[in-house]
Specification:
Layout: H1 14-32, H2 48-51, H3 58-66, E1 73-85, E2 94-106, E3 110-116, E4 123-130, E5 133-138, E6 143-148, H4 167-174, E7 186-194, E8 199-208, E9 214-223, E10 228-235, E11 241-248, E12 251-253, E13 256-258, E14 261-266, E15 271-277, E16 282-284, E17 302-305
Parallel strand pairs: 6-17
Antiparallel strand pairs: 1-2, 1-15, 1-16, 2-3, 3-4, 4-5, 5-6, 7-8, 8-9, 9-10, 10-11, 11-14, 12-13, 14-15
Length: 315
């Protein structure tokens, strides 16, 4: 007859009780057998970009952002533009057909964007922005528009409902503003984060406010496997987001990382733009001539001046 294992009587040694409990637990787990184990090893596939995450210091990361300010000019003649209009909280948005086009950019504040007819490749929309000066030619209406980028009511009649699409919004997506570490009252923080696909550094710029409050100006995500900008957010003084810009397929071109796709959202303005660029289509520092950033009204064009308060005149 097997001897029955006796448990310690109440008031016995606590150390002995604990030891005996451990023996009992080990016996119980052993009886489960290898097929009933409560623990097992699981192979997990780690995304390549997480495995390839690189280290970078604060100064190096700031240098990556500031590197865009040194680009004299950019050009891309093989791109597609898709526009979505309507605030998402309204429950309804309108998406306009993806159309080809090209753009020219020159530091510090010039951009030319031409959207073409998908079939004929003729211009249906030609926009020029130089500083605060805005001009556009719409051949289908024989109208030439002039105005200021800072005008609150510069809208698009050609798109139902109109949208406040501005060339500077696209410019700041293509040429991220530099980080001035010497600017008075501005502080920059560095942190790390990750998602299911990659690891990131985040540079956040803040401006000192009254009392203990500080205002977030901008956040820039830098993906660590390529050390390339992956996202940029720009905020209003009250904390609302102005621009949310995502960069996909970043590849080196002309000494800088440039995207295969940009997704720009303007939540307060109620529109979003997707710019898609074909592989190896970026041209950097081409020495773009001044004529490329000149746009004059063709003969016979109706000239429309857009003012800050003339809401009935929509571009």
């Amino acid at each position: 007859m097997k001897e029955i294992l006796q448990l310690p009587a109440p008031g016995g040694s606590g150390r002995r009780a604990r030891g005996l409990a451990g023996v009992l637990l080990a016996l119980a787990l052993g009886l489960l057998g290898p097929g009933c184990s409560i623990k097992r090893t699981v192979n997990v596939e780690v995304p390549a970009r997480i495995l390839a995450a690189r280290e970078a210091g604060f100064d190096q990361l700031v240098g990556i952002v500031n590197g865009y300010s040194g680009i004299p000019d950019l050009a891309n003649a093989r791109m597609k533009v898709t526009l979505t209009y309507g605030r998402w909280e309204s429950g309804e948005q309108e998406e306009y057909r993806r159309a080809p086009g090209y753009l020219l950019v020159r530091n510090p504040d010039s951009l030319r964007l031409v959207v073409q007819n998908p079939i004929t490749k003729t211009a249906i929309f030609d926009v020029l922005s130089v500083g605060d000066d805005f001009s556009a030619w719409v051949p289908g209406k024989l109208r030439f528009y002039r105005g200021s980028n800072s005008a609150e009511d510069l809208l698009l009649e050609e798109l139902p409902g109109g949208i406040p699409l501005r060339a500077p919004h696209i410019y700041e997506a293509l040429i991220p503003a530099g980080i001035d570490l010497g600017a008075g009252g501005v502080r920059v923080s560095l942190e790390e984060t990750a998602d299911n696909e990659a690891k990131y550094y985040i540079l956040s710029s803040y401006r000192e406010g009254e009392g203990p409050r500080i205002h977030c100006l901008r956040r820039i995500w830098i993906e660590r496997s390529r050390l390339a900008i992956a996202r940029q957010q720009i905020f209003r003084e009250d904390g609302r987001i102005i621009s949310d810009i995502e960069y996909l397929g970043m590849e080196p071109a002309g000494g800088i990382m440039l995207p295969a796709e940009i997704r720009l959202e303007r939540p307060e303005d109620g529109y979003a733009v997707k710019l898609e660029f074909e592989g190896d289509s970026w041209r950097v520092a081409r020495g773009l001539r001044d004529e490329a950033f000149e746009l004059s009204p063709p003969p016979g064009a109706e000239i429309v001046t857009l003012g800050n308060t003339e809401k009935e005149q929509r571009f």
